[in-house]
Amino acid sequence: MIDPLSLTQIQYELAMSVGTSLDMEEMMKSALGAFLRKLGGTAIGVHWLPGWNGEPTTAPITFPRGAIRAAAYAQATEHLPTAVDKEGWRKLRGALPQQGGTETSGFFHILELPGIGVLILTRQAGPLEPVIVDALQPLLARLVNACLACRQNEELAEAHQESIRTNRTLTHVRHKLEELANRNQAILDAIPDWMFVLNREGHIQDYKLNDSTAAGRFVMNLLHEGNSIDEILYDTLARQTHQAIQQALRSGKLQTIETNFDFGEGGIVEMEARLVVSGPDEVLAIVQDISERKRLSARLEDLARFPAESPNPVMRIGRDGQVLFANQTSQPILAAWEQNGQVRVPNDCLDTLGQAIANSTTTELEKEIGERVYLLTVAPVVNAEYVNLYAQDITERYRSEEVLAQERNLLRTFIDNLPDQVYVKDMESRFLLNNPAVLWALGAESDEEVVGKTDFDFHSPELAAEFFADEQRILAGGQPVLNKEERIVASDGQEYWLASTKVPLYDQKQEIVGLIGINRNITEAKQAADALRQAAAQNQLLAQAMEAASDGIIITDAHQPDNPVIYANPAFSRITGYSNEDIVGRNCRFLQGPETDQEQLNQLRQAIREKRSTAVTLLNYRKDGSPFLNELTISPVFSTEGALTHFVGIQTDISERRKMADTLKAVLDTVGEGIVSADDNGMIVMVNPEIQRIFGYQTEELMGQSLVMLMPADYRDAHQAGMARYLASGIPHVLGKRLELEGLRKNGQVFPLEIYISETRIAEQHLFTASIRDITQRKEYDRMRDDFVSTVSHELRTPLASVMGWTETLLSEKPGPLTDLQKRFLGIVYDSSGRLNRLIEEILTVSRIQRGTLQLNRKEFSPRESMAGVGEMLKSVAEPKGIAVDYQEHWPPNVRLLGDPDRIEQVLTNLISNAIKFSPGGGTVTVESTEAEGCWRVTVRDQGIGIPAAELPQLFERFYRASNANEAQIQGTGLGLYVCKAIVEGHGGEIGVESVQDEGTTVWFTLPA
Fold it and tell me: Which of 23, 293, 617, 942 sits at a 20 to 30 Å CA gap from 368?
């Protein structure tokens, strides 16, 4: 019989041994050794439940080694089911504890380790008393908790190593994918064929085509009008394409379509489209021009069919140029090729024959032979050392083309040298032909920049619409427009007037196919006429404007010595303090002083000597001696004969403007944030020194460059798309918000940054200014904090387990009776330890969420049972406050969900305990469990203090607590809702909150059924 004091000593030593290490082997060795020593045991071992500690066949842990051969231990193990017999284990646990004996007086005990297995203990001295067995239950529970902690520590360590291995693998894979993407892009760029990605409905998902050709530009215009083959193809071809898409997706085999396509100015072209499956609901269409291939194939077939009787020359030529065969009509060619009694192909044709044989390609060339011109077609024969040569006499056509080319060249030369603008347009008012005067007027450098486009591409929408309406009336009715005066604003902003004549263009069938336009510049004549009308009014208006101007204006006489002032407006007197009598007749140097910049003065004097305009900034002095900064512009005035007569000077007092600019620069240079401004084209127009420090660039390297140079490649497309979307819609998405993004330094390093973007408008131009902070160090601090919290939390759990175990033992009064005061104090210790244990668990969960290692052990469970278990557990929390918890269960009783029941119960416990904590005494908390839209929905509603509306969006952030909760001194860490959100979303569900301050709060979450 073991006395109570000895039992207390045993319990104390066992409590201290359990949880001394987070290493499973060390902890079990210490714990099992303590059991053997204090209980006088002869053998002890732990047998694991199936699937708990690895595979079902995991060997038991025994101590000391070899004790498993003891008779009592062997008899005890006969009661255990096999490792995979889960039903046997269930029945065994229901019958524990068990004990028995052997003929050699050995005794054994089988005790439950809840959730992980059983413990077998053998003794020679006799069985354990029931009181000892009962006293061991808390210790066995501590042993289970220690095993769980060890296993959790092993899982965390393995997860950390696995994340390192995964990161390395992902980095390697990313590099390989980048190399593959670059290689694939290079291959795609080198392929001349057009490519289109089409979905099952015939919508164009992506495309690649060459828009430098007429056909390519035609297709680009079609793509601007729609992205469906129904919108850009004629009906018959659209139906064929739809059928080919469906057939390709059903069969997975290549589908081919051949058709004639009218490309407008590009003519009618034979096209072939090959469709292959490129995704579950996508096909890749590869389109190529097969006109030449078709033409050559047909020509070769015709020529090869009757070589001897062919009206055209047909010959067979060997690799060495020897004529092996020739029909009768080839005689003129053979005679021209005969030299020294031998007929051989000339050397200048021999290279073409050799290349055709080597490359197995059909080649054409035009060749003058004797007095005739022939089109020679060289067709190699497979696996032969000769080629077939087919000739066609094109002498008449060739000479006709030469005459036409000469006439066309003369006409083109005449048109190109006309000072008037001459152009031709098609029925859609697209430019087809333009002389250089048209290109200059449109601001283009080459014909390719204009052909195929309309006036809408070069003029304002209003002016282009007027031109288009006139031209469409001409094309519809055939009535020309003659010498219509049109006001034009050129691409450089210069205004001029044209006398425009437009007449219809007819084809051979006398049908209108376009129009011809001739524009004559009448600007000078127009201006001369306007000048005569405005001259009188201008003199009076000019005088009034000069008198009313806010800038100082002076006129000096260049004929007189020293260029004296002959006129000064009132603003000049107001700025300088000098009266008109003080000014007239004097040179303006009386405004200069000791600090006036000599370099600027030299620039001014040089301009006066050279009779040209200039602008300078001078420090001048008023009549009272006070300085002011003068922005001075002078311009010469010439007579009609070209002689210099006067200078006009305009001065502006920019002292305040310069002061404000200097102040702004000082602020920007000293502010602790990087400041960068860009225009609506994304070009950098201003940076401060902090931007240089953050990104590693000098100012001159940034000014005028695109803002995307400061962004990683992954951000650039999104930035440019967002800028275009904002300029088009005016709807801001990032303006006025503080965002965390990534930046790219000059050395290629990507780093985290915090950015705030604002917008101003100057003269109808957008100016976007971003303030930027480098938050690399802050991110590192966050990572170190999370690591520290995780480490400290793990280290706290072990001693806390001992504190709670020892306190629970004392509260049981088995070591001895306690006074009421001792019980109250120990109860406070136990409750506080429990809160601390829950806090540590929350912190560990937050750490796993931050690291992305939160694991969910999914299995089927009953929501009703989980809700009932949580409700039973929280009775002890609600009853002391007199709070009634009303559970309204509408979930079907037999339906089960797939998820982690422990984590779901953690969410339920957190939400319901929060509602109880924030509810007033005597209130009611309503918990409703329902089926809604294929989900399990739980709603927890309280009658507590509520949450301010402005704080609701932040409620699920880490460590965030509502301000009124702090004021009411309600305990909490601000982690519970953050953890709940992570668990719910990890199950694919949603969580939300509604609240009215001083009336109550409703929190809900859903889980997929």
Answer: 293
Cis peptide before 313 (omega within 30 of 0): no
330 phi and psi angles, rounded to 5 deg: -85, -5
Q: Residue 84 and residue 128: Cα distance in Å, rounded? A: 30
Place of tokens 């979905």: 199
**Structure tokens given for 818:** 């306690």
Bridge pairing between strands 98-101 and 738-744:
unpaired
Beta strands 117-123; 107-113: pairing state: antiparallel
What is the phi/psi pair of residue 345, to 5°?
Answer: -70, 135
DSSP-derived pairing of the beta strands 674-679 and 684-687:
antiparallel
Distance of CA 995 to the CA centre of its chain: 36
Is residue 944 within 8 Å of 923, Cβ to Cβ? yes
Three-class SS of 539-556: HHHHHHHHHHCCCEEEEE
pTM, two decimals, is: 0.31
Q: What are 659's two structure tokens?
A: 């002061």
- Output the six-digit token pair for 311: 């009206």
Residue with the larger pLDDT of the pair 127 and 339:
127
From residue 676, alpha-carbon distances to 269, 743, 757 in Å are 53, 13, 10
- Which of 937, 888, 942 shows the shortest CA–CA distance to 913? 942
How far apart are the C-alpha atoms of 414 and 421, rounded to whole Å? 12
- Using CB atoms within 10 Å of the CB of residue 804, give its burial: 0 to 12 exposed, 13 to 18 middle, 19+ buried: buried
The β-bridge relationship of strands 268-279 and 255-262 is: antiparallel
884-889 and 924-932: which strand pairing? parallel
The more confident residue out of 466 and 305 is 466
User: Is the pLDDT reported for residue 621 higher than 70?
Assistant: yes
Angstrom distance (rounded) from CA 589 to CA 576: 13
**Among 412, 415, 392, CA closest to 404:** 412
In whole angstroms, what is the distance from residue 629 CA to residue 658 CA? Answer: 8
Spatial distance between the Cα atoms of 389 and 640, rounded to a whole number of angstroms:
76
Read off φ and ψ for residue 63, nearest 5 degrees: -155, 130
Averaged pLDDT of the chain = 79
């051949």: which residue's tokens?
258
Q: Is the peptide bond before 97 cis (omega within 30 degrees of 0)?
A: yes
What is d(CA 679, CA 59) in angstroms, rounded to the nearest whole number? 72
Q: Check whether 508 has a pLDDT greater than 60.
A: yes
| Residue 352 · residue 346 · CB < 8 Å | no
Q: How would you label 767-778 residue by residue, b for 16+ Cβ within 10 Å and e otherwise?
A: bbebbbbbbeee
- Most confident range (mean pLDDT) of 463-467, 595-599, 974-978 is 463-467
DSSP 448: G
Nearest CA among 56, 55, 98 for reference residue 77: 98
Check residue 595 and report its DSSP letter: T
CB-neighbour burial class of residue 476 (10 A; exposed 0-12, middle 13-18, buried 19+): exposed
Q: How far apart (Å, rounded) are the C-alpha atoms in residues 740 and 944? A: 36
Cβ contacts of 844 within 8 Å, gap of 6 or more: 790, 793, 794
Name the 3-class secondary structure at 791.
helix
Which whole-number Å values give the CA distances from 594 to 575, 618, 621, in the listed order? 19, 12, 10
Is the link from the previous residue into 893 a cis peptide, with omega within 30 of 0?
no
- 969: which 2 tokens? 């001194």
Helix (H) or strand (E) holding 294: helix 291-305
Q: Dihedrals φ, ψ of 615, to 5°?
A: -135, 130
User: Quick one: pLDDT band at residue 958, thresholds 50, 70, 90?
Assistant: confident
Asked if pLDDT for residue 649 goes beyond 80, the answer is: yes
Q: Given this model, what pLDDT does residue 361 score? A: 78
Buried b (16+ CB within 10 A) or exposed e, 310-320: bebbbbbbbee
CA distance 776 to 789: 20
Nearest one of 899, 904, 897 to 870, comparing CA atoms: 904
SS3 category, 833: helix
Q: What span, in angstroms and rounded, lies between the C-alpha atoms of 705 and 268?
A: 45
